[in-house]
Amino acid sequence: MGTTGQLSAVPEPKYWHLRTVLLRAIDTEFSTGQILPNERELSARFGVARATLRQALDQLELEGRLVRRRGIGTLIAAPRVGVPVNRQEEGWPGAARSQAWRTVDCTTAPAARRLAAALGVPEGAPVHTVRRVRLVQGQSMASESLHVPAAVLPHLPGFRAESDRARSVLRQLERLEVDGESRSVELGVAEAEEAALLERPPGSPVLVMNTQYAAAGRLVALAVATYRADTCKLTFGETGLVEVTPVGATPVGAAAS
């Protein structure tokens, strides 16, 4: 028997079948913000053990369809609406006019081999890294590490406070005339440090967006933004721009290229 036959013979887990049943119930019987019945009621209604029910609820929470609130219960999550991520709408490199960014820190260190290759600089070359958290309606939606070769900003003054150095890096970058950018997106999991910034458990699914910025024919910055996969979706419009859609945010139209 071939591999396909072997896979088709694997029975569907009970919790996965229950997840599908629960999704139908969520879509037809409940509205955004409504609280689900407790586990005892749900177990009795669907004729399953509580362990199976919890697996199904965990999966739906992971997918962003449910939200658990301590002392309240399990709620139906809000639908996703679009917030564009592009230089035309927000300025670059992510200095948002419509969204808030909170600086975590700013460091300067020799580039490790992998980062040096991504930036096109020699291994060990000094690189400025600004870490920020993107807030949408007060919720941590993404963490970003913005890497800039020190050679790109040769006249960056010295500062004692990291926040002052971060502002100076961002301000000088905005003065550059960007003549090209490229984006790539992949699925990943949040490591401990990222998970803490995103207020999610380690290992939570995330969407990792890498954006390269070029000016005067050379790469001047690399932004690695890690978005919560439970509250974001990525859409690609006719302009080719990437839109990130956090739950509960106000829709913003994408700019034309």
Automatic annotation (TrEMBL):
InterPro entries: Bact_HTH_transcr_reg, Chorismate_lyase_/UTRA_dom_sf, Tscrpt_reg_HTH_GntR, UTRA, WH-like_DNA-bd_sf, WH_DNA-bd_sf. SMART domains: HTH_GNTR, UTRA. Residues 12-79 form the HTH gntR-type domain. Keywords: DNA-binding, Transcription, Transcription regulation. PANTHER family: GNTR-FAMILY TRANSCRIPTIONAL REGULATOR (PTHR44846:SF17), MANNOSYL-D-GLYCERATE TRANSPORT/METABOLISM SYSTEM REPRESSOR MNGR-RELATED (PTHR44846). This is GntR family transcriptional regulator. It comes from Kitasatospora purpeofusca.
